[in-house]
Amino acid sequence: MPKAIRISKTGGPEVMEYVDVAVAAPGPGEAQVRHAAIGVNFIDVYFRTGLYPQSLPAGLGGEGAGTVEAVGAGVTHLQPGDRVAYAARGSGAYAELRNLPADVLVKLPDAIGFDTAAAMMLKGLTAQYLLRSTYPLKSGETMLFHAAAGGVGLIACQWARALGVTMIGTVGSADKAALAKAHGCTHVINYNTENFVERVRQITGGKGVPVVYDSIGKDTFIGSLDCLQPRGMMVSYGNASGAVPPFALSELASRGSLFITRPTLFSYVAKREDLEARAHELFEMVESGKIKIEIHQRYALKDAAQAHIDLESRKTTGSSILVP
Asked: In this protein, which residues make up the domain named Enoyl reductase (ER) (predicted)?
């Protein structure tokens, strides 16, 4: 029987169990995928801890790449043998074999390997919608991006460089600062040794930035607002340090009529045509060499708990994958 990671209760990494699972034939509108590689993302931690609720028992993981083994009734855009990848709402990717809705799968170009695809679908599509849609960056602009040496961050560094955008990135160590710099981040701030608000003001000559992309949450939220120009955009897309506490809307008014949004990838790829267009642009950037996907951590599927321990302790850089 195929193996998978399952949880029957929420909690720490120890709640993850490596078990045998039965996988039925795919139903109508479904495809069965045998994973070659599986992405690991902070959102998986949110589901494991219960910050994002789901019915239990349940799987974990929303990103993977592999080969179609079978398709259900009504599926016409895929066939057995197709190389595919996905970043999908819900959980279940931490598995050797799974069924999932066929309309979340995109075909992989031959030039992109399974490991690369599993490491980039959620992170790469996130960078794409953030930089190209939520606040469409233009050449010559300056922005602030937290966690610049993380999986999304390293892709954002390279994408910003390709767009001609000046990126100010925050990191938590000298090694991560060097990594972000090497990937195109123009100015790097170590938030453990520097005040990032003061440094942003220095770098921008006191003007601040038109947009902040913040996946850290609680620890950086107010500081991020303080980095914005009047009428700037706060993009809060994650909670790595904890959920942002309730705040008064007057906080936005007092800083110059700021805008704020809490986007998710799945709102931006809800339509099939949007998913295909965003994936196409991401694939083009990778195939052209403008973006290189950095896989810095590989774990066996059975060692998923260790992957979560490393992720939560901020030991990881770039992308992490599980290999069945």
From this structure: 11-322
Whether the Cβ atoms of residue 116 and residue 156 lie closer than 8 Å to each other: no
Note the pLDDT of residue 42: 86
CA dist., res. 45 & res. 61, Å (int): 9
Which pLDDT tens digit goes with each residue over 289-315? Answer: 999 998 989 999 999 999 999 999 888
Task: Report how far residue 156's alpha carbon sits from residue 282's, in angstroms, rounded to the nearest whole number.
Answer: 11
**pTM metric for this prediction:** 0.90
The four Cα atoms 307, 37, 87, 320 give a dihedral, to 10 degrees, of 30
Question: 27 φ, ψ to 5°?
Answer: -85, -175
Respond yes or no on whether the N-terminal peptide bond of residue 57 is cis (omega within 30° of 0). yes
The CATH number corresponding to 139-262 among 3.90.220.20, 3.20.20.10, 3.40.50.720, 3.60.15.10 equals 3.40.50.720
Q: Is 262 helix (H, G, I), strand (E, B) or coil?
A: coil
* Cα separation, 84 vs 126, whole angstroms: 18
CB 99 within 8 Å of CB 32? yes
CATH 3.40.50.720 range(s) for the chain read: 139-262
pLDDT band for position 4 (50/70/90)?
Answer: very high
CATH 3.90.180.10 domain residues, the chain: 3-121+281-323
What is the CATH architecture assignment of 3-121+281-323? Alpha-Beta Complex (3.90)
